[in-house]
Specification:
The chain is mainly β. The longest helix is centred in the N-terminal third of the chain and has 9 residues, at 2-10. The model is unreliable at 1-7 and 11-26 (pLDDT under 50). The protein has one domain (2-259). The chain has helices spanning 2-10, 78-83, 157-164; strands spanning 34-43, 47-60, 67-75, 87-96, 101-111, 114-123, 128-134, 144-149, 154-155, 174-181, 184-200, 203-212, 226-232, 239-246, 249-259. β11 and β12 form a beta hairpin. It starts with a helix and ends with a strand. It has a 15-stranded mixed beta sheet.
Length: 260
Amino acid sequence: MRRFALVTFLTFTAFSLVAVAQPKQESVPWADGERLVYEAKFSKIISIGAVADLVFDARRDPATGNHIFKANASSKGSLLKLFRFSFQQDYETVFDPVKGRVLKTAKHDVQKDRVRDSITEFDWEAMRVTFVETDPKNATRPPRRIASKIEDGTHDLTSGMYYLRMQPMSVGKQIEITVSDSGLVYKVPVYVTAREQQKSILGKVWCWRVEPVVFGTGRLIEQKGSMIIWFTDDERRLPVRSRLNTEVGKVDIKLRSVSK
């Protein structure tokens, strides 16, 4: 179940990483204060219903001009009743839209009784990322530290989704990008495989079908699986749906509300 919690949250964060260009501040497709709310459903042989909510918030810091991205995933419904498993994951990312660089990531991760807090800092002068994780329930436990070299265009999990929404898409587009998670660095090949219609809260809309390669040995999720994300083919590039096939079952995540 701990693996399921990670997989569910990563569905709309780690795998939306296609950006390469350096965007200008005024060109972002989301409004200041935008909120996206999703619901995740899980099935193996049959559907067991809703298991998690995911919420993404974007705002601009008027003092610095940086964007603050917040992402939250929390368990609910069948996951609590059937498996007696709960999780909550909160991310806060500070992103410089002028230079196109993530500056800092804070994470609060709760899985049943296990709690971890972490800070990830991106030092672009030294081209290095440093991850420090602590256990707030055990002050005597030494912090876990991981540091790695980074390159231009490296993202964290949350900034990737917003960064992708600024990119032009076309069928057949192939890009390999770099993402850092928990102090480690991964290469993520991403493919735009089709333009097709999807039913959503916005109605029946044309979308780009995007398939990031995040499963496999040495990748973000070290197991067999596949992922698809559908982004609207308009100026907002809203991720309206994702489907994730894993060893433990299938996760289907759909957009439930959009507000500004």
